[in-house]
Design a protein that fits this description.
Layout: H1 2-10, H2 14-23, H3 27-39, H4 41-152
Length: 154
């Protein structure tokens, strides 16, 4: 059959063509089509126009499908990004609340520290007062001892 096709495509001799048609009758229709196209070349142009229209339609369908797929992918990506944005906004809100809590707690600690500092200063002042009183009393005791010794030892 391969030789038959080679003969069909390459031979222009009438004897070869008749011999091929006798051996393979299906080639008769092919030769009729070729003869018709030679008599009416516009048929070939019409055939190519139909083929090009078909290809254009297929290309158009492919492009529509491709653009639809791209659009769907972009919609999916948009939805994912919107979800991610919402998740991040929620996390941000939680972190801001946590920060406010930490700030409030820090202010409480600062106030407590200030109270402790004031108490420490108060205690330091009391200690200084007590040390001064202690020193005064020690001096008073020393003076009283001197007086006692002076009165007991004439």
């Amino acid at each position: 059959m391969q030789d038959a096709w080679l003969t069909f495509f390459s031979s222009v001799k009438v004897e070869d063509i008749l011999k091929l048609i006798d051996m393979f009758p299906e080639f008769r229709d092919y030769y009729r089509d070729i003869a018709k196209y030679r008599r009416k070349p516009e048929e070939v142009i019409h055939m190519y126009s139909e083929a090009i229209a078909f290809l254009d339609h297929n290309t158009e369908q492919y492009m529509i499908e491709d653009m639809t797929n791209q659009l769907n992918a972009l919609k999916k990506e948009k939805a994912e990004l919107e979800k991610e944005t919402a998740d991040l906004a929620e996390k941000k809100s939680k972190l801001e609340k946590e920060k406010k809590n930490w700030d409030a707690e820090r202010q409480d600690w600062d106030a407590q520290r200030q109270d402790w500092d004031a108490e420490r200063q108060n205690l330091n002042a009391q200690r200084q007062d007590l040390e001064a009183e202690n020193k005064r009393l020690a001096e008073e005791i020393a003076r009283l001892k001197e007086l006692y010794e002076a009165t007991t030892n004439p």
